[in-house]
Specification:
By secondary structure, this protein is of the alpha/beta class. Helix content is 21%, strand content 31%. The strands form 5 sheets. It has a 10-stranded mixed β-sheet with strand order 5-8-11-14-17-20-25-26-22-23, covered by helices on one side. A hairpin with a 2-residue loop joins strand 1 (42-45) and strand 2 (48-51).
């Protein structure tokens, strides 16, 4: 694996190598490893995440070596560089028409994809529901037993190219039409109410204490989050700017579903 990493880094630094057959094979080997879940763009360790930049580089390098091709599935036709993922029955993944996952993404056993989209490089954990019209962006990391509600948008890292993928940790509930992008990390068991938008610059304000505490780029574990606004002064006057408000904590429970229902009821959260 170290030799493969060194080779990908070398190609990244010298794009003229993209025309070399052995270099193309190295890039495609990484994509195959991603597709089978044998490597990840980012992986957790001791409550921290390590980003494997060389793997992300391989995903970026995959596009210029691929040729456009026509994909026909029954009456449907696609024209793209990246093939579609296959073998869902063997993977133990439920895929509802018209759900699509690209080759190079990994879905653990027990994932359910309603009509939705999972992009190349993404990793989706066991028991996770990708609900209707939800999108999982390139290289995003979605934990186990996560619910991505209808219309949720999880950002990718390729457009624009970013250092860290967006991460949703285990047992999170992401409410309808939420947007989480730019490498934001949502801590385990957190609950995002409907329409929460999180970017690296979004103020995530904990209002549960006597004084507000502002976070950026990360939602603490077990937080209950809703959309909010705060006042910001501009040359033209004072205006309300969107933010996210942490209004409570999800209680630890061995039964995550019961815990989730309690949170939604206690805080009157729209999902």
């Amino acid at each position: 694996m170290k030799n493969l990493e060194d080779q990908i880094n070398q190609i990244w630094d010298d794009r003229s190598l993209l025309s070399n057959a052995s270099c193309q094979d190295a890039i495609r080997n990484v994509i195959e490893l991603l597709d089978k879940g044998k490597v990840r763009v980012a992986e957790p360790s001791d409550n921290e995440w390590t980003v494997n930049q060389w793997v992300k580089k391989a995903v970026v390098l995959y596009f210029p070596i691929q040729q456009m091709t026509t994909i026909e599935i029954g009456p449907f036709e696609f024209h793209d560089k990246i093939p579609l993922k296959k073998g869902y029955e063997k993977l133990g993944v439920r895929v509802v028409p018209h759900a699509i996952a690209r080759h190079g993404s990994f879905l653990e056993k027990g994932v359910i994809m309603m009509p939705s989209y999972v992009n190349i490089g993404a990793w989706v954990g066991a028991g996770t529901m990708v609900d209707t019209w939800a999108t999982v962006g390139s290289c995003a990391q979605i934990g186990r037993n996560v619910h991505l509600s209808g219309g949720v948008g999880i950002g990718g890292v390729l457009e624009p190219l970013q250092a860290s993928p967006t991460i949703i940790e285990d047992n999170c509930f992401i409410g309808s039409r939420c947007i989480v992008v730019e490498g934001v990390r949502v801590g385990s068991e957190a609950v995002l109410g409907a329409n929460v938008v999180l970017t690296q610059s979004t103020h995530i304000i904990d209002v549960t204490g006597n004084n507000p505490v502002t976070h950026r780029g990360a939602v603490p574990p077990r937080s209950v989050v809703i959309p909010g606004t705060y006042t910001k002064s501009f040359p033209a006057g004072d205006y309300q700017v969107a933010c996210a408000l942490i209004i409570g904590q999800r209680k630890e429970s061995t039964d995550k579903k019961v815990s989730l229902n309690d949170v939604l009821r206690d805080h009157s959260i729209a999902v």
